[in-house]
Amino acid sequence: MSFTDTAMDFRTPELDALASVVIPEQHFELRAEDARDSYFTDTSKLDAKQLVHDRFRTNPRALHDHLIGALDLRGTEELLDLGCGNGEILARIRPYLAAGHLTAFDIAPAALEAARQRLDGVATPCEFVEGTADDLSVFANDSFDRVMAVYMAHYVTDLDACFTEVRRVLRPGGRFVLATDRTDSMVEMWNVHFAALRDMNAPEMLFRATPKGRISLSNGTGQLTPYFASVERVDWQDQLQFGKADAFMAFYRSCNHCCASSKPGVDLSPAFFTDLEERVHARVQAAIDKVGYFALTKYTGHFICS
Ligand SMILES: C[S@@+](CC[C@H](N)C(=O)[O-])C[C@H]1O[C@@H](n2cnc3c(N)ncnc32)[C@H](O)[C@@H]1O
Questions:
Q1: Could you tell me the residue ranges of all domains in the chain?
Q2: For the segment 48-61, what is each residue's pLDDT rounded down to a tens digit?
Q3: Ligand 1 proximity of 73 Cβ (cutoff 6 Å)
């Protein structure tokens, strides 16, 4: 494992201890179709999340900086972006591929439309393809020099099919970059969330962690190794620091209340979420009153596969 930003180490024994008691083993199951039909009918939540990262991060190197390094681009490559979302990352990477070719791929029509608008008018050729990442049959063998999947693999129903397909469409010598988090990323958010749920005697079903438990930085190496000769794990960290509780609450909402509002298997009323938000807000405000900000520590990174 390599650690690129050694200066940015926010881990403390206290945070590790918190993660060991707060992060549950069980995680939410969220099918790609459910995510498309509930979470990605428009890109407002994704837009909000990206804005929060831009405004509140403390690592000067953003996600796209790390990805640009991982992709190791010459400027002429053909790149496939699986689960391109609103095209924010593609637009950031595009100047490094000015003489290349971009294919934006997503299961959600609303995401593809947002990506199309964001890249509208750029001279670099761009294609927009709707589909699911476990079936890339629209692409011929050896079509791409680079494939990336950024914070999307946990939605893919059949990861074995997905990695087989990525291997097939990737040219010899090409690279697949899969970005994801560790399961204990943002433990501070899970802590205030679960504490509020406990105060409310919320249904047991809600005491689960993010669907990223399916594939994460923590368990991805074993899942990728059967398909790629080389799998390198790169870890890096960031810390979002919120000086106002309302700023954090916008992020918490964009995370679907830690998945509690994204088809968890129980029906929850609007009043439930009002109560939950008030309790979370109070805990976040208490942290701000004590130390000046509420911190969310991100343990994130990517796999470079070839
Ligand atoms: C959290 S967003 C990430 C978007 C973008 N990669 C980024 O990092 O900004 C996940 C995206 O993956 C898409 N997605 C989910 N499951 C998918 C699948 N099976 N195949 C293709 N796209 C999928 C969603 O529609 C959504 O746009």
A1: 2-305
A2: 999 999 999 999 99
A3: no
